[in-house]
């Protein structure tokens, strides 16, 4: 099994990305598609840093996971608009198509899917974003069998990429919405267990609270902790 | 690099000289960032080893470590994801005490820090000596919570916080620098927040 020792060093430099598309699927989410200058290849699960620069040279930067797969011409991000979020509010409220942003990436070589290992992504809320990149990569390879996704949202309306997830065969569960005979509530080990057959690697992405829950479910199902890779985000993201 | 159209400083400037470039004050928050499944480590089974290029490779249990002279750090911490947190208080033991017991050899110049999860991070030995690094088990007078690296983490507050390895279990002294986990992931080998050494190449 690949260990933390197997990651290869890498160097990235700052570049620029022009906003080609901007959409607010909900008032608290913004989806951006960028044309990145001198773009490097990326693997599903990697992230970009966006840096905003004020006229007085004050800067603010945040990391965002990529939703797009490497074969796509544009780099796609989905950002949750956090109240008081210096960067996310700017991206949602101020940035427009045609604007140029400083970007750096791809970054991260641990929370990445190698596009070979049978894997399960257990993702919650905007934590679905890297799973979207993984699903698109799997579809592009015509190997959808390599990746299973269990996505958890409060309700259908707030789960990012809900339609794309459903089309890709992801299991969708809601904590505050009854659906398909399932009463609302947190996912259970019984709901995770049927997805484990043949899976060798596990990707957990979401809030710290979701990650703790998901790690606990995998442990309850007997998954070896060393097979689990975690990406958490919070107010810092 | 170009100015971002429509972007202006909204946050007030931090206290003079306390906020490194590109950082913001997270206030009472303490975001949690980890790469691996959070381990459950009982203090009774935890230990820390100092080995590699030392005269006396030494392991301390939880009880051993608590027999050493306690030391408290009060000050600020800075995370590469751009938050800083002011006036934190951690208590444990100074890394100087552990190193003095183990006796670094003359050719020991770097340290690879290991966690029980397999996480690693590398530092020059000079960043771990001189009262600037601790192995800590209390935060604000209470046991360090597991999500923040409890029962015991490393604390190197003058560098970005990924150097302060959670669930620390071993300090391996080396002659040559060997990149740790985030360092192989594209992050800087030293990570000085005042020089904004976030990524390889900065």
Structural commentary:
The complex is a heterodimer of chains A (237) and B (202). With 237 residues, chain A is of the alpha/beta class. Chain A has 2 domains: 4-107, Elongation Factor Tu (Ef-tu), domain 3; 119-232, Nucleotide-binding domain of ferredoxin-NADP reductase (FNR) module (Rossmann fold). Chain A is built from 5 helices and 11 strands. Chain A has helices at 86-93, 129-140, 162-167, 189-192, 208-220; strands at 14-26, 29-36, 47-53, 59-65, 75-80, 100-107, 119-124, 147-153, 171-174, 201-206, 228-232. Chain A is globular, with a radius of gyration of 18 Å. By secondary structure, chain B is mostly beta strands. Chain B has one domain: Sulfite Oxidase, Chain A, domain 2, CATH 3.90.420. Chain B has 3 helices and 11 strands; from the N terminus they run βββαββαββββββα. In chain B, the strands form 2 sheets. In chain B, strands 1, 4, 5, 8, 9 and 10 form a 6-stranded mixed β-sheet that branches. In chain B, strands 3-2-11-6-7 form a 5-stranded mixed β-sheet. In chain B, β2 and β3 form a beta hairpin. The chains are: A alpha/beta (237), B mainly beta (202). Chains A and B meet through β3, β4, β6, α5 and β11 of A and α3 of B.
Helical region count of chain B?
A: 3
**DSSP strand (E) fraction of chain A?**
25-35%
CATH architecture of chain B: Alpha-Beta Complex
Helical residues, percent of chain B: under 10%
Low-confidence stretches of chain A: none
What structural class is derived from the secondary structure elements of chain A? alpha/beta
CATH architectural name of the largest domain in chain A: 3-Layer(aba) Sandwich
User: What is the CATH domain class of the largest domain in chain A?
Assistant: Alpha Beta
Would you count the extended β strands of chain A for me?
11
Task: Please give the largest β-sheet of chain A.
Answer: 6 strands, antiparallel
Q: Report the mean per-residue pLDDT of chain B as an integer.
A: 92
Low-confidence stretches of chain B: none
Q: If helices are DSSP runs of H or I spanning 4 or more residues, what is the number of helices of chain A?
A: 5
β-strand number of chain B = 11
Taken from the alpha-carbon principal axes, the silhouette of chain A is globular
Strand content of chain B: 25-35%
CATH domain fold name of the largest domain in chain A: Rossmann fold
- State mean pLDDT of chain A (0 to 100 scale): 92
Cα(first) to Cα(last) distance of chain A is 30 Å
- The helix/strand order of chain B is EEEHEEHEEEEEEH
What fold name goes in the CATH topology slot of chain B? Sulfite Oxidase, Chain A, domain 2
């Amino acid at each position: 099994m690949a260990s933390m020792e197997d990651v290869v060093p890498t160097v990235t430099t700052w570049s620029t990305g022009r906003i080609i598309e901007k959409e607010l699927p909900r008032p608290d989410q913004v989806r951006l598609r960028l044309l990145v200058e001198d773009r490097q290849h990326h693997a599903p699960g990697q992230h970009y840093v966006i840096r905003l620069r004020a006229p007085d040279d004050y800067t603010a930067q945040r990391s965002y996971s990529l939703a797009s797969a490497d074969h796509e011409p544009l780099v796609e991000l989905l950002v949750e608009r956090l109240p008081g979020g210096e960067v996310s509010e700017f991206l949602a409220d101020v940035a427009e198509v045609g604007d140029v942003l400083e970007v750096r990436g791809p970054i991260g070589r641990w929370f990445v899917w190698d596009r070979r290992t049978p894997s399960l992504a257990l993702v919650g809320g905007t934590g679905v974003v890297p799973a979207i990149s993984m699903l698109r990569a799997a579809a592009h390879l015509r190997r959808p069998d390599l990746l299973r996704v269990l996505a958890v949202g409060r309700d259908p309306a707030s789960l990012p990429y809900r339609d794309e997830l459903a089309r890709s065969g992801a299991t969708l569960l809601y904590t505050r919405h009854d659906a398909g005979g399932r009463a609302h509530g947190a996912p259970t080990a019984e709901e995770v267990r049927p997805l484990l057959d043949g899976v060798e690697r596990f990707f957990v992405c979401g809030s710290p609270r979701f990650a703790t829950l998901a790690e606990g479910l995998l442990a309850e199902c007997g998954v070896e902790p060393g097979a689990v890779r975690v990406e958490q985000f919070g107010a810092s993201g | 690099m170009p100015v971002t159209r429509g972007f202006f400083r909204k946050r007030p400037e931090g206290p003079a000289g306390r906020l490194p470039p590109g950082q913001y004050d997270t206030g009472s928050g303490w975001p949690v960032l980890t790469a691996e499944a959070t381990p459950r480590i009982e203090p009774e089974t935890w230990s820390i080893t100092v080995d590699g290029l030392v005269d006396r490779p030494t392991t301390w249990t939880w009880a051993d470590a608590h027999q050493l002279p306690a030391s408290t750090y009060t000050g600020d911490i800075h995370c590469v994801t751009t938050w800083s947190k002011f006036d934190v208080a951690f208590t444990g033991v100074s890394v100087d005490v552990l190193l003095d017991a183990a006796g670094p050899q003359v050719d020991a110049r770097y340290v690879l820090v290991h966690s029980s999860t397999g996480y690693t991070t590398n530092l020059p030995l000079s960043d771990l000596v001189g009262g600037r690094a601790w192995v800590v088990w209390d935060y604000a007078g209470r046991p360090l919570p597991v999500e923040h690296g409890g029962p015991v983490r490393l604390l190197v507050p003058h560098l970005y916080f990924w150097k302060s390895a959670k669930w620390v279990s071993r300090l391996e002294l080396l002659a040559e620098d060997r990149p740790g986990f985030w360092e192989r992931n594209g992050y800087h080998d030293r990570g000085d927040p005042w020089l904004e050494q976030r990524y390889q190449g900065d």
